[in-house]
Design a protein that fits this description.
The chain has about 240 residues and is α+β, with helices and mostly antiparallel strands. It has a single domain, classed as Gcn5-related N-acetyltransferase (GNAT) (Aminopeptidase). It is about 40% helix and about 25% strand. It has eight helices and eight strands. The strands form two sheets. It has a five-stranded antiparallel β-sheet with strand order 1-2-3-4-5, sandwiched between helices. A hairpin with a 6-residue loop joins β1 and β2. α1 crosses α3 and α6 packs across α7. The radius of gyration is 17 Å and the shape is globular. The two termini are about 25 Å apart. This is Retinol-binding protein. Pfam families: Acetyltransf_1. One of its GO terms (molecular function) is N-acetyltransferase activity. InterPro entries: Acyl_CoA_acyltransferase, GNAT_dom.
Length: about 240
């Protein structure tokens, strides 16, 4: 049975407030990280469509931005994810402008054998790579859980970068998970920026492998130019 958010948890909820530099002044302003409101689902998807294809390291290496089918299929995935009502957005307090977003969904042990098939070869390669790394992390057995909060995309508007917003988006998953009864949040972090943000938010490594090692395991996992860089599965266990 598909996971559903408990009706006892108010939606949308604010999960985190923090201070960081504003846009027009070095003085700190307040930001909030909250659930994506239902009337902003499409705005969050558009935000990801605008920034994520250019941000993600694997997207850049494989030419995702030049593959309309990869973007179209990603949009369908993001729409499915926001409907689970666990995806997060960051706003400046008092503003409706989306500053950052993390597209989240609940992965269940009962569904782990399900394979996604895409028309885009680029998206299929990225999916198969992260699926392989996930299997090596062995999360269900490692942590003794039946489900965990996973992700497919973390982006911050370029004009708001350098303020720790990615770290706060990742940190906000913790009270969210605690409220909805999920004991683990885990993600395949494919680039240095997100790996650093995750470590700052308290996530620990479950599995790390370089892209060169991945290619040696399976020729499909070919990411030219980043062979020496690591791909990491990282988790935060909620106590």
């Amino acid at each position: 049975m598909p996971w559903t958010r408990p009706s006892t948890v108010p939606f949308p909820s604010v999960w985190l407030r923090f201070q960081a530099k504003g846009l027009d002044s070095p003085d700190p302003v307040w930001y909030v990280v909250q659930d994506v409101p239902e009337d902003r689902f499409e705005d969050a998807v558009r935000f990801m469509s605008r920034f994520f294809p250019h941000d993600e390291q694997l997207n850049e290496v494989l030419g995702f931005v030049d593959d309309p089918q990869a973007l179209e299929e990603s949009v369908h995935l993001w729409r499915d994810m926001v409907r689970q009502r666990v995806s997060l957005v960051c706003f400046r307090e008092g503003s409706s402008e989306i500053v950052g977003a993390n597209m989240l969904g609940v992965s269940c042990k009962a569904d782990q054998k399900r394979e996604e098939r895409f028309g885009s070869a680029i998206l299929q390669t990225i999916y198969d790579t992260t699926k392989y790394v996930s299997k090596q992390a062995n999360l269900y057995e490692r942590y003794g859980v039946q489900e965990y909060l996973s992700a497919m995309g973390l982006s911050v508007d370029p004009k708001y970068r350098g303020r720790g917003i990615a770290t706060e988006l990742l940190r906000a998953r913790i009270p969210l998970c605690r409220a909805v009864g999920i004991r683990l949040t885990s993600t395949c972090f494919t680039g240095a920026g997100s790996q650093i943000a995750a470590a700052r938010a308290g996530y620990t490594e479950d599995y790390s492998v370089t892209y060169g090692e991945l290619k040696a395991i399976d020729a499909r996992f070919d990411f030219p130019g980043i062979e020496n860089k690591p791909c990491k599965y990282m988790s935060y266990r909620i106590e």
